[in-house]
Design a protein that fits this description.
The structure is a single chain. The protein has helices spanning 15-29, 52-56, 65-74, 91-98, 102-105, 128-142, 166-180; strands at residues 4-8, 34-37, 77-83, 113-119, 146-153. The chain has a 5-stranded parallel β-sheet with strand order 2-1-3-4-5, sandwiched between helices. The protein has 181 residues and is of the alpha/beta class. Helices cover 40% and strands 17% of the residues. The chain has one domain (4-180): Flavodoxin domain (Rossmann fold), CATH 3.40.50.360. Bound molecules: flavin mononucleotide (FMN). Flavin mononucleotide (FMN) binds at residues 10, 12, 14-16, 83-87, 119-122, 128-129, 156-157, 159. Flavin mononucleotide is lined by residues 10, 12, 14-16, 83-87, 119-122, 128-129, 156-157, 159.
């Protein structure tokens, strides 16, 4: 099982996808094992809020979240990559987080190391990306996990805009590898 699980919050082959692949390839070069999942492209039912999982730590739905929860349990570090959408995290990532509720009652995310990477089209000083970051850090607080690193990529609108920020991407990748080694 991989040490790092990269969760991509956008289903298009855009900036989050590109960043996830750069990280994955750089990890492989540094002999750090990683998996990538894109919940938006998987079969994941919406949480109905039935709360059955609070009783036994298991969701009644049979879908891709069964394997995702195995991957989460086995990962030492989870990297969330989200596009900013309306000043918050993507809906795909929120749906994924809601379906992690079976791990709430079992405290399965307690002390899990989390890295949060936020992408958006606006400039960093326009607040918008902070809203996305805050929504992820609030999730982290809610499940008692640990934020070990965070980074922002602003002014990314088109699919490959993030690739124009090579220096910043390189720095973030190096920072993360340093933390993981
Ligand atoms: C519905 C929607 C809402 C968005 N809202 C914001 C926003 O509030 N702030 C921002 O900076 N960018 C916003 N964007 C732009 C995306 O964050 C940006 O295009 C990002 O690079 C998309 O990442 P992706 O290529 O990984 O999908 C929005 C995009 C969409 C589709």
């Amino acid at each position: 099982m991989a040490r790092v699980l990269i969760v991509v919050g956008s289903r298009r082959k855009g900036n989050s996808y590109n960043l996830a692949n750069i990280l994955n390839n750089s990890f492989a070069n540094s002999r750090i094992s990683s998996d990538i999942i894109t919940p938006g492209n998987q079969k994941i039912y919406l949480c109905t809020g039935c709360m059955d999982c609070d009783k036994n730590g298991v969701c009644d739905f049979k879908d891709d979240m069964e394997e995702n929860i195995n991957l989460v349990n086995n990962a030492e570090v989870i990297i969330f990559i989200t596009p900013t959408r309306w000043n918050t995290l993507s809906g795909d990532l929120k749906i994924f987080m809601d379906r992690l509720n079976p791990l709430y009652s079992t405290k399965g995310l307690k002390d899990k190391k989390i890295i949060s990477l936020v992408i958006g089209s606006k400039k960093r000083d326009e607040y918008s990306l902070d809203g996305a970051m805050t929504s992820i850090t609030s999730f982290i607080e809610g499940c008692d996990a640990k934020l070990i690193y965070k980074a922002y990529f602003d002014e990314c609108l088109d699919f490959e805009d993030i690739l124009k920020q090579g220096e910043h991407v390189d720095k973030v990748v190096k920072d993360i590898i340093k933390i993981l080694e």
